[in-house]
Design brief:
single chain
């Protein structure tokens, strides 16, 4: 499924995360670039000099697996004065998370990862055994934790299944989230946010 995040939600999350010039934001399943666009709109208010413009233009990083949304995302970035968008056509889950170094980490992650999907065994092999869930949202949460800088910030949309699921991988991922990160806020979103595409209850 492709459930695009409403602009009001991406704008709210970008505003809450308080972008700063010099920071880099990532979306590892960026679709048409809604979160990246909201980030750029928020960050553009700080652009004054040519150096600021350069930092603005190099502040985004996106990955999208599907060809059509990827093409739309590139177009979207060009329309926002990003001449060379750092947006890549690949699958974020096909790299071993333990291979990520500090150079692969970002100041901010803004995401609505795909959920409800199930990944094949070869995808799960890229994750430590205790975190190897078959649910895509869980795997993306692990990617976020491994790719967020020390003292970085993230705002992520996740389904109820992540919060309340009780299988071993979900429990391990939540334990890592609560013990190694500062989980600040959970916002319950109304049912209507992704209607009529899905009735799954979601949270930020």
């Amino acid at each position: 499924g492709e459930f695009y995040t409403p602009r009001a939600v991406t704008d709210f999350m970008a505003k809450t995360i308080k972008p700063q010039l010099g920071e880099k934001v990532a979306d590892f399943a960026c679709g048409t670039g809604g979160f990246l666009t909201s980030w750029l709109n928020e960050l553009s208010k700080q652009v004054v000099t040519a150096e600021d413009q350069q930092e603005y233009a190099t502040s985004i990083y996106g990955i999208e697996k599907k060809p059509f949304p990827y093409t739309l995302c590139i177009t979207n970035m060009l329309l926002h004065d990003i001449d060379v968008p750092m947006v890549y056509h690949e699958n974020s889950l096909l790299r071993d998370v333990l291979d990520y170094t500090e150079e692969d980490q970002f100041d901010v992650v803004l995401m609505n990862p795909p959920y409800g999907g199930h990944e094949k065994t070869e995808v799960k092999n890229h994750f430590p055994a205790d975190l190897a869930s078959s649910e895509t949202a869980d795997l993306f949460m692990s990617v976020i934790m491994y790719r967020l800088k020390q003292d970085g910030r993230a705002a992520v949309i996740l389904p109820d299944g992540f919060l309340f699921g009780t299988d071993n991988a979900k429990i391990a991922i939540k334990k890592k989230l609560l013990s190694e990160f500062n989980l600040h806020t959970i916002i319950r979103m109304p049912h209507s946010v992704f209607a009529p595409y899905t009735s799954i209850t979601t949270n930020i």
